[in-house]
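Database export, one record per block. Field names are fixed; values are copied verbatim from the stored entry.
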Amino acid sequence: MTEAPRVFGPEIQAGIYLRGLSGAKPDFPTCFAELEARAKAELTPEAFAYIAGGAGIETTMEANRAALQRVEISPHMLGGAGVRDLTAKMFGVPAAAPIMTSPIGVLEMAHSEGDLAVARAMRNLNLPMIVSSQASFPMEQIAKENGDGLRFFQLYWGKSDALAESFVKRAEACGCKAIFITLDTTILGWRPRDLDLGYLPFLRGKGIAQYTSDPVFRAMLPAPPEENALAAAAHFTQVFSDPSLDWARIAKIRSWTKLPVVLKGIMRADDAAKAVSEGYDAIMVSNHGGRQVDGAMGALAALGPVVAAVDGRVPVFFDSGVRCGADIFKALTLGASAVGIGRPYVYGLGLGGEAGVKAVLEYLLAELDLTMALCGCCSLAQIRPDLLENS
């Protein structure tokens, strides 16, 4: 594992202010609202719509933020937190902090190096990344750029079990340490921002590199994708969606790999309890950043009940709506073992490639560290529910 750089909050903060003495300002905005505004100005309309958009009238996206804002931190004073330890372990592997990049597809729309730039940034930060099924580069190439970094693979399980098995075995072979099965996207949600532009990147051959590099998928095609990219894209649309996916089918994964299997997209306590009873290794509370079901509850509102249902038997991860280090702190306080970042790192990617991803993650690390200091927490174990108002 690559040695983590020292990214403590005061060091990052002081570095920005010291550079400011000579008139320099940060290359990338430290505030999410400005980061998003800058990205909107730089990206194509199609790219921004795909990244920023949600399902329906985007009430679930709003609910994600509302749920995070409803939770209020109640800091302890004089906690003696002069030194903080943010290090975490995921499936036995150490990381610099309990933060990871959640899988987002078609990153080539944000930057030509896409997933490769993310892989390098996360390796250098000693933070895990989740490689997407809809990546813009084959997982083996992403793994090469990530080197000895900690990485997982996100599986979209479509109509072909043989293709799902091939993805899983490739992920294990290229050094991924767990498989995250995304449960909430067995079919694409209703996304007006994309629909109003008439733009679906997959039909244009974007974000399907895992498929076109896979021997099972290639065997389904009448000609190699290099010879007929349109036919490959069309066939992808035929195999991706399968709302009939159920508990019985995903149980097959146990015969394919010994890697830990995480169920991503759990939002209900009863589903969480069933996942534990079925023997899965972890759960990720997520509503896909509000991109699938409009009118759903905010993800943070689901975290507490899921953590209670799991009762410490497996780790519970969290994503959806996270915009700052204080959001990460709140999720950890409610029982998350680690927190996934979505849109913020993609905006950083769009504005500056690897450097932009690294800067955004460093900002989040810095604010998490400073929040820990201001709440009297020396370690992750001290981030407890009693640090929340009315806990």
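Remark 1: The domain at 9-384 is CATH 3.20.20.70 (TIM Barrel).
Remark 2: Confidence is low (pLDDT under 50) at residues 1-5.
End of record.
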